[in-house]
Every structure is written in structure tokens, then in C-alpha cells.
Specification:
The structure is a homodimer of 392-residue chains.
Chain A: H1 8-28, H2 32-46, H3 58-79, H4 82-87, H5 89-113, H6 118-127, H7 133-142, H8 149-178, H9 183-214, H10 219-240, H11 244-256, H12 261-287, H13 292-295, H14 298-321, H15 326-335, H16 341-352, H17 358-391
Helix pairs in contact in A: 1-2, 1-12, 2-12, 3-7, 3-11, 3-12, 5-6, 5-8, 5-14, 7-8, 7-17, 8-16, 9-11, 10-11, 10-12, 14-15, 14-17, 15-17, 16-17
Chain lengths: 392, 392
């Protein structure tokens, strides 16, 4: 019960790094997230703070980082244009599916070419499927393009893509671990996912709308209510077998359709942007393990290229098929490049089950780091060109 | 790096408890903090969540609670009327000192009467010295009485009282541990404390004032800047040997004199009141160890009475001597009743050094729990009577 402030120094260092990262980004005219990632890398890999191994700082700070990603995705859902989101449902699905198929095939073929087994090749293919939602959510928000048609398409496709990635991963791991195709589990996961989306976006919206019409809450209580909702939705999706960020996104969509939306969007953007989200990105940078670069060779390089081409071409073609312009389709592809959340769980499961060795794990880790680092500047540029053209 | 959401369920439960605590308080027309403490007690002692022992939830949640108390005290410093604070410097010191001497003497005598040694009696006396700043800060803020003459006196006296408590504890523990009076260390602690206060409240204010005139920052960056400042000040006071909350308070006073004050006060009250501070009070309730009640007897009951009388009479007389009304002086005494932060560190040090046994530790713990629980309703009532009288 005594207030042991062991983690305050670590938190202070991370917050200062986040501040410096912002200044760096502004100086370089780059998105805030790039500076935060870079400062995180400097902290975690070059200077002082280590988050691997039992460290006093790790518990609390990884907890805060977790809230950070949930709040980022929640505020994205809150800020989204729901009508546009529904209109673009088909287009988002096309982009997501074509951005799943091509990277999977390319990854599979690359691994086969390098002499790996079909099992490992399938694993590598799956590792290229899911995109990282956080990076593009942060940049779209910073450029105020979340409510545009393009922003809506990107976020919609990203969430669908993430769901597909998680489902593929669950199926693959269960098949390898049990030797049988878990038809029951797969059906259950898919049914629960569909049910969750349907109930949330119909009855959920109605319920929260009524609540928002009936009660008036102060700003602190509103924030508390919002946080309870995002955590509860995150917990539900985790229990179903999806990622918590899917729940956070749906929570945002649901509350976004109520009278709570405006106040809560402001509050969450403040508390998220001024504390939790910078900590999340610095922490991600700190956890980039550059040790992975020392042991990998050509295969990692090929994997990076395949990861980029897979999404840029796959998602780009999907967007083009949905009548987006060349420039917009390219931006969609760029937005889908970064990998993070699902891939890292996949690596862990792959190692735990003895499916892959350190070589493949390192190669995928290198792919994750590079795609995450090149996305902010390139997406920033691609979106700015579109924005400037429209403003002219 | 994978987002293991093990602590999300625990956080969710605590936030729901905080929300229910608020509703309970409103229903009972009591301060918010009382409901939060009670719900925390229910969670920690009766139902599910345990924070003792290695729990997945403990690290992150105790970290968030730590930030909570720092933000509460920071926003108190931010909200204080600095001119009034300086005017009441002497009165605050009188209240603090008379509220230190009487409880110490009463505690000492009580222990001697019950047959304990002089060493233990001194320890018990010291355990009654420091007041808990959080409880009154929360209630004064909720009643919007922080900027009144009475609120300023209470906060000023509480901070001085806390400094005295920490200094006495450090001296006592060092004397017992080393067998010598650490004149060098004592002088250093006192010199550093005075230097810190002086530099912060002169050069510190000037520096931050200049900064606030020169740069304009967005709301997220302002929040980030405020958080960095409060953590840095907390770290400095911890390094000196004081409590981190002293640094947080001074940080608030300093920034309170700049152009940043207004925006930051709003931001901190939102992020604190809507997230960190409720978690702190629920967590405090969860950590109340009611096991202490099963082993103690008459001595604990006497200690509780002595703790209450010591502060109510000691501080009350001090306020009376400074020309506050009877009713106000009584409220000052009530406000000083709760003990928490310093006492709990003292118990731990006492046990570690073999100065006290489980009996004395339990008695002090019971005193901490009871004084903390009776203060919110009684202070609430005492302050409301003063407020209503003035408004008539």
C-alpha cells in the first residue's frame, strides 16, 4: 500500500522521449508517431531502458501502453463517419480480402523458394496477412482525414483484415497443435464474431443512444463511462478469440452514434494523445529488438519486399476495383503495409509450438520493424499529396 | 511486445467499482471519495480482487494509482490561491506544528501507559504526526473550496505537516538503525528541502512563466508538459528524501502562476478525475487490510481516539490562534484527521528494522483505516455547514 515510486523515473524518461519525438517530427515535417517510434528505439536499443526481462518499469508501463492502443482505436471508431462506413462495406471487404490473398501467396512462395517446408511456408504466408491498425489510425487522425471517404475505406479494410488475420492464425495454430481441423471452434469463432458485430451495431447503438438521451453526465463521469465501455468491449472480443482492439473499435463506432460522441471524442483525444498513445508508440519502439537484424540474411530482405508489394498491389488493386483513383488506391496500399499486433503473437505461438525456429522468427520480426518504420513517412506523403490536390 | 491484456479485466472491475462508488456517494449525499473507498474495500476484502501477493494486475494498477495521487495533489497545487497561500504561511505553520506536537505527545503517552518501551512509544508518537493530503484535497476540490481562505490554510498546513512527518521519520529510523544521531544527514535533508522550496517558488516560477509567455502549445502537448513537470518534481523530492507528493504539490504551485495554469487545470482535472484518481481511491480501499482488526484490542481503540483528538484539538487550536472562527477551526482539525501515506511507509520500516511487532503494526493500521474512513463524511458535513452559512 506504500507508494513505491520505482516506476516514476521510467515513466518520466518515456514521456520526455515522447515530447522530444514530437519536436523531432515537427522539425522533419513528419507524423508525430515517427518521432515517437525513433525515440523509443533509441531508448530501448541504444541507451538505458530495457523492457525485456523482469524490470520494475515493465508492468505498469506495458499496462499504460495497452490502454494507449485501445484508446487510439476507440477514438478512431468514435471519429469515423458511420454512414460512409456502411456505404463502403463492400469496398472495404474487397480491399481487405485482396490484401490478404496476395501477401499470403507471395509469402508462401518466397518461403518455398528458399527451401522451407510447406508448413513453414504457410506460417510465413499468414504472418503477412494482418495489418497494424495503430499506425494508420494515428496518421489519419493527425491529418484530419479520418472522416473522408478514403480514411473510412482504410479503417474499414484494416479492421476486416485484422479479423481475417486473427481467424487464420487461430485455425492454423489449432490445426498444427491438435492435428485436426477444428471445425467446431472455427464455426463458433465466426458465428460469435458475426453476432458480436451485429448486436453491437444494432441493439448496442440503440441502447447507448437511449442512455445518452436519458442521462446527462459530467465530463469526468462521461470519460469514466467511455473507458468502462471500451474495456468491456475489448474484453468481450478477447473472450471470443479476437483482438481487444477490434472490441475497442466497435465500442467507438457504437458510442459515436450517440449524444455522448462529441464530448467523449474530445476527452479521449486529450487523455489519449497527451499521455497514453505517445507512451504506446515509444514503448513499441523500445521493444523493437534490433538483435534480430544480426542473424538474418537474404530471406528477411525478400520477406520485407514481398510484404510491401503484397499490400501495396493487393490492397491497391482492391481499391482501384472499388473506383478509387490511382493516387488514392496507392495510398490505401501504403496504409496497409505495417504489420505489428497479430504478427507478434503469431511469432510467439510459432516458437512455442516448435513450428518455426529463431531464423524465421527473426526474419518476420525484421519485416515487422521495417514495414512499421517506413509506413509513417510514406503514408504521410501519399495522403498529403491527395489532401493538397483537393484543396487546390 | 504482444498485447497481453491480462490486466484489462482487473482495470475494468476497478473502474466499474469507481462508477458505482460515485453513484453510491451521490445517493447518500456524501463525497465521491467515500463511495470509492467503500467499493474498494468490498472488492479487496470481500469479493474477488486481491492486490497482495504476486498478481498480474498489481503492477500496472498500482502504477496507475501512483499517478492518481500525484495528479490529485498536482491539481490541488494548480488550483490553489498562491497569494492567499503566502499570506497564510505563518498560520499554516502554526496549525501544522501544533497538529504535530499534540498527537505525538498523546501517542507517546498512550503507548507508555500500555507498558510499551520508550522506543516503541516514540515510534507510535511519530506514526500520528503526518496527515493524508489526498482525502482533503479531493473533498475541498469537490466542494469548490480550494481557493477559499479556509481551503488554503488546510492545504498549506497539510503539506508542512507532511514534510515534518517525513523528516521525523527519517531521523528516527536512521537513529535506530545506526545508533547515532545523523546530524549531517538531517542538516542535508533540511537544507535541500528549504533550497527546493525556495528555488521552485522563485526561479522556478520565473522560468515557467517565461516559457508560458514564449511558446504556445496544443492541448495534448500542454498535458504532456504538465505530466513531465509533475513527475520530474516528484522525482526530485523523492531523491531529496521527501515524498513525491510534496514535489507534485510544488509543481502545481509553480505552474499555477503561469499562462499554462488554466488549460492545464482543466486537462488534469479531467484525466485525473475521470481515470487516475478514482482508481487511486478504489485501490486504497482494496489495500485496507481488515485482517488487522482481528488481532488488536484496547490499545488500537485508544490509538484511534488519540489520533482524532490530537489533530482536532491540536490543529483546531492552531487555527483558532490564527483568528479563524470556531466552526472553521473545527473543520481544520477534522481535515487533518486522516493518516495514510507516511504512516504506511513507517510501519514497513518499523517491521523491517525490528522496532515494532505485528501488534503495534496492526494497531497503527487500524488507526489509519478508521481515520481515513471517518474523515470524508465528517469533513464534508463540517465544510458544508460553513459554506451554507456563508451563502445565506
Amino acid at each position: 500500500m506504500a507508494l513505491e515510486l520505482t516506476f516514476v523515473p521510467a515513466l518520466l524518461v518515456i514521456l520526455v522521449a515522447a515530447g522530444l519525438g514530437r519536436l523531432l517530427s515537427k522539425g522533419l515535417r513528419q507524423p508525430v508517431i515517427l518521432g515517437e517510434l525513433l525515440l523509443g528505439i533509441i531508448l530501448g536499443n541504444l541507451i538505458i531502458l530495457s523492457t525485456t526481462g523482469p524490470s520494475a518499469a515493465e508492468g505498469p508501463i506495458s499496462g499504460i501502453a495497452e490502454i494507449g492502443i485501445l484508446l487510439l482505436i476507440f477514438s478512431t471508431g468514435l471519429g469515423l463517419n458511420f454512414e460512409e462506413f456502411k456505404r463502403l462495406e463492400v469496398a472495404s471487404s474487397i480491399v481487405a480480402v485482396s490484401g490478404v490473398i496476395l501477401p499470403f501467396i507471395l509469402g508462401y512462395l518466397a518461403a518455398i523458394y528458399f527451401g522451407f517446408s510447406h508448413l513453414i511456408a504457410t506460417f510465413v504466408g499468414i504472418s503477412l496477412v494482418a495489418t497494424s491498425v495503430g499506425v494508420k489510425a494515428s496518421i489519419l487522425t493527425e491529418l484530419r482525414m479520418l472522416r473522408t471517404r478514403l480514411g473510412t475505406l482504410i479503417m474499414g479494410a484494416a479492421v476486416i483484415d485484422d479479423v481475417i488475420g486473427v481467424v487464420m492464425m487461430s485455425i492454423f495454430i489449432t490445426v498444427v497443435a491438435t492435428g485436426a481441423i477444428p471445425l467446431g471452434e472455427i464455426s463458433l469463432l465466426i458465428i460469435l464474431t458475426i453476432l458480436f458485430f451485429l448486436i453491437s451495431l444494432t441493439a448496442g447503438i440503440k441502447l447507448f443512444r437511449k442512455l445518452s438521451e436519458k442521462i446527462t453526465v459530467g465530463r469526468e463521469s462521461l470519460l469514466l463511462l467511455g473507458l468502462v465501455t471500451v474495456l468491456a468491449f475489448g474484453l468481450i472480443t478477447t473472450e471470443i478469440g479476437l483482438a481487444a482492439i477490434i472490441g475497442a473499435f466497435i465500442a467507438g463506432l457504437v458510442i459515436g452514434q450517440t449524444h455522448f460522441a462529441r464530448g467523449l471524442r474530445e476527452h479521449i483525444s486529450l487523455i489519449g494523445g497527451g499521455f497514453f498513445i505517445p507512451i504506446f508508440f515509444v514503448w513499441i519502439g523500445m521493444n523493437f529488438d534490433f538483435g534480430a537484424f544480426t542473424t538474418v540474411g537474404t530471406f528477411a530482405a525478400v520477406l520485407v519486399i514481398v510484404a510491401i508489394i503484397g499490400k501495396v498491389v493487393g490492397c491497391g488493386l482492391g481499391a482501384k476495383a472499388s473506383k478509387f483513383s490511382d493516387r488514392e488506391s496507392f495510398a490505401v496500399g501504403i496504409a496497409m503495409m505495417p504489420r505489428a499486433g497479430v504478427e507478434l503473437i503469431l511469432i510467439k505461438l510459432g516458437l512455442d509450438h516448435g513450428i518455426i525456429g529463431a531464423d524465421i522468427a527473426s526474419a518476420i520480426l525484421v519485416m515487422v520493424i521495417i514495414t512499421t518504420l517506413i509506413t509513417p513517412p510514406s503514408l504521410w506523403k501519399a495522403l498529403k499529396m491527395i489532401k493538397n490536390k483537393k484543396e487546390v
